[in-house]
Specification:
Elements (H helix, E strand, L loop, with lengths): L1 H19 L4 E2 L5 E2 L51 E8 L2 E8 L9 E6 L2 E7 L14 E4 L3 E3 L8 E8 L6 E9 L4 E9 L8 E3 L8 E5 L1 H4 L13 E7 L2 E4 L5 H17 L6 H16 L5 H10 L6 H14 L32 E6 L5 E5 L2 E6 L4 E5 L10 E6 L5 E5 L2 E5 L4 E4 L10 E6 L5 E5 L2 E5 L4
Antiparallel strand pairs: 1-2, 3-4, 4-5, 5-6, 7-9, 8-9, 9-10, 10-11, 12-13, 13-14, 14-15, 16-17, 17-18, 18-19, 20-21, 21-22, 22-23, 24-25, 25-26
Helix pairs in contact: 3-4
Amino acid sequence: MFRYFLLLSSVILATNFCAAVERPVVSGASEVTATISPTSTPAPAFTAVPTRTVSPSALPPPSPIPTPTVTTELPDTVTPTPQDITSLTTKFKDMVVTVSYPKQAPSIADLRLVIARQNQIIYDDKVSPDLQAGDENNFDLLDIKSPEFHNLDQDAEMEIILHFLTNGSYCCAYTAIFDYDSTHDLYVKSSQKSWGPFRNLPRLVDVDEGGDTEFISHNEDFSSTFGPHAISGAAPIQVWQYTADGLRIVTKEFPELVRQDADQWWQAYTDEASDWYGLSVSLSAYIADQCLLGETIDWEQAATTYDNGVSNESWNAYLQRLQKALKDYGYTCMLDFPDSTPTATPTSETGWTTITDFKFVKDMAFDQDGHLWLATSEGAVKWDPTSQTATKYTVDDGLAGDSVKSIAVAPDGVVWFGTTNGVSRFDGQSWTSYTEADGLGHNDIEAITIAPDGAIWFATDGGISRFMPPE
């Protein structure tokens, strides 16, 4: 009984103590008060917190938006670790853009872009470039620039621009543009441009200070038809603007810029008279600019400089090729081109006669009609000595390769051509070509001869090959 009395006394004492101490009262995030009732029991070591009002300007700045974590799938499906990934990040206001790719053997197929706004990812995908014909062999990534922010269309949203270079033999420079879709609150790739074979990226400049950003580039595809890819940058100027439909060429809207470019290439042309390829490349860029301007050309001075220089083709042959290239690449020229018909004619007089319209001729043969077929480094030429007219044939017409080294005419009138890329036959109407895949010993042909039995023999870098045409 005494034991129950002690237990009851303990419960009563504990109840009195708890009643004597009131719990703290919290009234809002910035105000805390505490009340202690007097008692003979020592008060707990509580410290009262005074009421305090905090100004919003005194708050610490928000933490920066963290860089999005990027993962990329390698071709062998092994997920790379962060140590295996190279990332480039650009920040603008509340946006963070990161482009990443594997450190080992990167290709443009591995490029991944992540766009975050207010710490929310609104684009996360591979760039997936739209390759042009031939670009599929230039996948290796050579270099990539940090993402850029530009307001290209003068709306409320910034476009994101990604420049990258591939490591093919002659290729290429690309620009991809990502635009904001306000309807779906995400970014989409709206445009992509390949700038040509020389890996020269465009300059972004507001040329006329009118508020629009122009892309300044050069038509390298046009100029690459006149010289090796190693001659970088010798090409007529091009100006592009970004619109809702993508990049639009507006070169004609900036005549002063075109005129400055034309003056530059004319000066280069007159300075490069001793350069094998510089002549045709620089002059072609100059004439293309003049086409856009609709201005005249001093053909006499151009021809004199050309003839005094070192070139691998005649002036007349060059003019024919130039007019075709201008047409193929959309230069609508109203220029009065000089006559490109060969002017030199063999005479019946004794002694020597030299025709300089065709240079670097490797071989030649007459056909039954009196036409002289020429093998040149720029294609095959059929020349009529009587009418002084020449017809040129290249790979565009069906020739196996433009560098022709040997020619032979069969008794049936078929003309055989040996090139550095196989053999071609021309019957006056159609072309047929043969390569190693068809049984030829080697694609590089040095000589052709025709046997009495009608078989065609070819001297190649891999031995001699014989072809018997079907009857």
